[in-house]
Design goal:
about 325 residues, 3-stranded antiparallel β-sheet, single chain, 3-stranded mixed β-sheet, 11 helices, alpha+beta
Amino acid sequence: MPPVSNERLAELTDRLENGIKELYASGRYAEYLAAMSKFHHYSYSNALLILFQCPTATCVAGYNVWKKEFERQVKRGEHGILIFAPSKYKQAAMVEKKDPATGQTLYGPDGKPLTEPGFIAATRFVPVYVFDVSQTEGKELPNISVSELSGDVEGFEDISARLSALSPLPIMFGAVPGTAKGYASHLEGRIVIKPGMSQVQTLKTMIHEIAHGKLHAPDFLADHPKQRHQKEVEAESVAYVVCQHFGIDTSDYSFGYVAGWSRGRELNELKASLDIIHTTAGEIIDAIQPPPQRNQERELSQAPQKGRQRKSKKAKRK
């Protein structure tokens, strides 16, 4: 079987983009955005802290925010994720003396501003704890994707074996924190997939995590670290393209997933990563599709049988 063409990869990526645009136009997406707007956007340093402590975190907020804004309660026994939040305070200092009437700075005989004891605004960072949605329970958050894919895949065992051989990290099945289906960790040196899922969900998750393993080394090893949302858009886009090529429909899941991690309606992350998505999806497709020699051997093995069947029919006529 020849390598997958760039035209085929572009066709599948276009399907993904059009599907997400249709989702953007739906009322479900508006409801989702309204909920997501209540979440605080954390600094790059805090995002790293969250990732290191809870690799599967998706939506994090403080204890009171979960309770008041989302009507959800942190589960008993859950441990918070430590981050550092800015705290404003007034610090004693010598400040420029102002004219009470005009507010203008007053100057001394030497031409320098006069000063007096006062206070200036300052910022310090204090440790606080946040919790991921998987650590809470209560009112459901608006969702724009299905919770899990279902169905079987023809040749599941063979495809799984090829994916495992291709993966840059060893793949194993085991407990996955929170609501995630799997995770890839260069620090742990492995990919972990949640057991007991359908064949469709399992393969989709394996491809998603392999894409992370191939594309997203730890930030401290990367020349140009990517934001979490960019990484997730790339991994899920690769998974969608590969699955679609083999006739495995993950549209309901992938459209919502990519839309959820995209910033705005223009799909900038997807467009910026098209070359990476095409290259990685093409490598995975070429690695897991049946090799040409296997098909040739199958045809050769069937040819003598057809000849024997024709001879037996002639013998019966006689």
